Amino acid sequence: MKHLLDIYSLSSETIKEILDLAENLKEVLERPIPKVPTLRGKLILLLFYEPSTRTKFSFERACKVLSADTLSFSTKGSSLEKGETILDTIKTLYALGVNLLIIRHSLSGTPHFLAKHLKIPVVNAGDGIHEHPTQALLDMLTVREKLGTLSDLKVAIVGDIKHSRVAHSDILGFQKMGAKVYVTGPAHLLPDPKEAEFFEVRKGCFKVCYKMEEALKEADVVIALRIQRERHGEPYIPTLQEYAENFGLSPKHLELIKEKALLMHPGPINWGVELSYEMEQYPFQVILDQVKNGVAIRMAILLKLLSGD
């Protein structure tokens, strides 16, 4: 494993190795002093071109626990504003001794481009509408932790599937680990037939549902997604209120899913839109567990790429 660019290129064996390592690393996070010297002397660059709270701080926390030093780069006030290319900027920082790059960018494929031109590992922290691999890995870790398995589950993903990099990584990852994935949302925000064919990595394990009830029925896991309005060139939904009435998850949907089914969301959440306020009290809502597992997953990724584990 030289980079972590997407879920698409990972085998089920590699995914399992990452999940197992992250599960073991959770013990470190529970210590009175959660810090180990494993990556002491390593310098990690965090380059976020888009806003981020959970992902960025989760990576920073993972770095600190592993004793790695970090550089957090801001595009504002940098040479990028003077016309310098992103590749030249990163090469300059590499010359300062950077050992690994974590990048989030609005342009799909940016991490892949950089990985071809750099001698250091590149981690994709979200690229455009393409993928968000560490989010899918932490989602899978959370499900396996709570349900004991990823195999033979029904995972329902609700929302803006077309523009969600989280959805794309989850669709691929859960299938690779033996689950069936059903997606639903407004028809124009669902994958078209060609996209659906690409996402079906295991025959018969991916389905686009135009009726929300079909996707939710007997689901073991339900993942709600935010409407990606910042990625819409034009309005795709009339109002958020209308979306909430038709596709927002509320207590009435609990009758469709399995008993003790997990409710998940990658954040940030628009309460009252994709999730009704009442769903915050749902006893099997594991949104903060996802956040906690994000640190362990990102620790595992850093260890695999920098220590050869």
Task: Describe what you observe in this structure.
The chain is of the alpha/beta class. The protein folds into two domains: 12-131 and 291-306, Aspartate/ornithine carbamoyltransferase (Rossmann fold, 3-Layer(aba) Sandwich); 133-286, Aspartate/ornithine carbamoyltransferase (Rossmann fold). 37% of the residues lie in helices and 14% in strands. The chain is built from ten helices and nine strands. It has helices at 12-29, 54-65, 86-94, 110-117, 133-147, 165-176, 193-199, 212-216, 240-247, 287-306, and strands at residues 43-48, 69-73, 100-105, 122-127, 154-158, 180-184, 206-209, 221-224, 262-264. The strands form two sheets. It has a five-stranded parallel beta sheet with strand order 7-6-5-8-9. Helix 7 links the parallel strand 6 and strand 7. It is globular. It starts with 11 loop residues before the first helix and ends with a helix. The model has no long low-confidence stretch (mean pLDDT 93). Carbamoyl phosphate binds at residues 54-55, 104, 132, 135, 267-268. Catalyzes the condensation of carbamoyl phosphate and aspartate to form carbamoyl aspartate and inorganic phosphate, the committed step in the de novo pyrimidine nucleotide biosynthesis pathway.
Shape: globular
Tally the helices.
10
Number of strands: 9
Largest sheet: 5 strands, parallel
Radius of gyration: 19 Å
Class of secondary structure makeup? alpha/beta
Helical proportion, percent range: 25-40%
CATH topology of the largest domain: Rossmann fold
CATH hierarchy class name of the largest domain = Alpha Beta
Order of strands side by side in the largest beta sheet? 7-6-5-8-9
- What number of domains? 2
**CATH homologous superfamily label of the largest domain:** Aspartate/ornithine carbamoyltransferase
What is the terminal separation in angstroms?
Answer: 10 Å
List the secondary-structure elements in sequence, H or E: HEHEHEHEHEHEHEHEHEH
Report the average pLDDT across residues: 93
* Multimeric organization: single chain
**CATH architectural arrangement of the largest domain:** 3-Layer(aba) Sandwich
* Percent in strands: 5-15%
- Which residues form runs of ≥5 with pLDDT under 50? none
